[in-house]
Design brief:
There is one protein chain. Helix 1 runs antiparallel to helix 3. The strands form two sheets. Strands 1, 2, 5, 6, 8, 11 and 13 form a seven-stranded antiparallel beta sheet that branches. The two termini are 14 Å apart. Helix content is 21%, strand content 38%. The protein is of the alpha+beta class.
């Protein structure tokens, strides 16, 4: 047996075994109620303002390319997901909000067609039947990533100037918003300035420790070989 190969390979195999035992960690999804904190958690942000939408009652689905290589499909769905509904423009001509035709409808953002979305956020709130901001309303946010991690957040007294978002270490597949209907009337959900971003994955502490441990073993093997003065030997006949 070649002694050089054995002395060098043993630590390398040990390192590989350690790294192999470090199973992939579960995704980490976090909710943000601060745009500054959200922006600090993502990279390459792009904002879709919806200001290019010019119809009143619109289609049931929209394909969007806000820039930066991002793309997505957004659907207006019945509250139980049984069928498509229609979008409706709210806000003003200079600041368009994406809303729904029926108060109970859901706005569903579908990111399955891209591999870039790890963060999604924006301004989400309630409007009245004419598309004007309705104060004191509650909004439901629901995010689901590629690892099956789901978060549901109810925002009480949602305001047009308050940012909410989710960021995950796994790709976000769906993001849905809907209005929580009050007992004394109707509320339509609205979305403004949707922000998409990427998140740079970092090694879990356990994985990093295993990696350092494996490299340490490799260095020990090389140092040990030097101290022993080992050199490749030619087999004697």
């Amino acid at each position: 047996m070649n002694f050089y190969f054995t002395r060098l390979a043993a630590p390398a195999l040990a390192c590989a075994a350690l790294l192999g035992s470090a199973l992939p960690a579960q995704a980490d999804m976090r909710f943000y109620s601060s745009q500054a904190a959200f922006n600090a958690a993502i990279s390459a942000p792009v904002t879709d303002s919806f200001n290019d939408l010019f119809w009143a009652q619109g289609p049931s689905s929209l394909y969007r390319e806000p820039g930066g290589g991002y793309s997505y499909v957004v659907n207006a769905l019945k509250f139980d997901g049984s069928d498509y509904s229609s979008f409706y423009n709210a806000g003003s001509d200079s600041d368009v909000w994406l809303s729904t035709d029926q108060a109970t409808d859901v706005i569903s953002f579908d990111f399955n067609y891209t591999d870039k979305v790890y963060g999604v956020g924006g301004f989400f709130f309630g409007t009245d039947a004419l598309g004007a901001f309705l104060p004191g309303q509650s909004i439901k946010l629901n995010a689901l990533d590629a690892d099956g991690i789901e978060q549901v957040v109810i925002i009480e007294n949602a305001q047009p100037g308050t940012f909410y978002g989710f960021a995950s270490t796994s790709q976000i597949r769906y993001f849905e918003i809907s209005a929580v209907q009050p007992s004394d009337g109707l509320t339509w959900v609205a979305a403004n300035d949707l922000v998409l971003g990427q998140v740079a994955a970092v090694p879990e502490p356990s994985s990093a420790a295993l990696l350092l441990g494996g490299l340490g073993l490799l260095g020990w093997g090389l140092r040990r070989r030097t101290q022993l003065g080992c050199t490749p030997r030619t087999p004697q006949i």
